[in-house]
Amino acid sequence: MYAKSILTLGIILVSIWLTQDLFAQDLSSKAKAFLETLDPNLRQKATFPFDHSERFNWHFIPRERKGVNFHDLNPVQTEAGLQLLKASLGLPGQEKTQAIIELENVLRVVENRPPNDTYRDPDNYFFSLFGTPDASGEWGWRFEGHHVSLNFSSKRGTIASATPTFFGSNPGIVQVDLHRGKQVLEKETNLGFAFLESLDESQKAIAIYTDKAPNDILTGNDRKASLQSPKGIGYSQLTKSQQQMLEELIAVYLINYTDSVRDRLWGKVRSTGIQHVHFAWAGSTVNAIGQPHYYRIQHPDLLIEYDNVQNNANHVHTVVRDLNNDFGEDVLGNHYSYGHSHQAE
């Protein structure tokens, strides 16, 4: 099954990445095409009402999940599901997803697990759809497994929300022969350190709020991300070149999305005021395995967290939250306004 999903994933994504869909593409057609490949039992397993509580039951650890995974799907069904995934992400996000899935095989080696182990399993990633895909209506979908949680809401055929978005990497830097030296979240790590190093000592004294990094991202898998007043150094306290570096770091996270999602998130930040962006650091300032560290970028509309503490600081977690529109709050509000309410458990 592993050979099926990973080989199919690689072949399909390489071929369909040659051309990029515009954000205005009707995602509902991709979702419908996927559902049409499923038999009634699989379709029932894969679908939920739009406002079902399962929609908010997201996580990034190995655990039991609802939906259909690669074990359930034949090659035709797998291709249809991956077409929907490709239409929902930018190229870097697609590549990152594939690379994280492949790390499950690295973990089998690191942890000396058998090839058919089901705990570290590249086939154990799930597709779940919420509501009825419709070019004029509201619906959502999720792709999720260990270290990947991608949550989308669609309205009138386009992506109205693409957060929460979680990408993780264990190992952070691979140290076994299978993919030795691979660093899936390299830019997130190295640009974070580069920005920190660009600060002078007085600026670092403001940006570094503690010498101990938290054990994980602070927002966890909360339904709604909430952190109190931002810590660290403000955008207006930076030089022009430092401001540009901070924007480049933000861009590393937003480039995972389709062009229009990326542009809309940037637009919200700039509309509210980019001067409200803060950068906060915790933990070690040494970029090396064994040196726990954390940073976050906080704005009234956007939160980015990065944490590398676990497994001797060689295990990275990152998350992007739209603080006003995770899970398509705007879309869900519109859904409720027309009298739809299920909230089934």
From TrEMBL:
Pfam families: DUF3500 (PF12006). InterPro entries: DUF3500. It comes from the Bacteria. This is DUF3500 domain-containing protein. The lineage of its organism: Bacteria, Pseudomonadati, Bacteroidota, Cytophagia, Cytophagales.
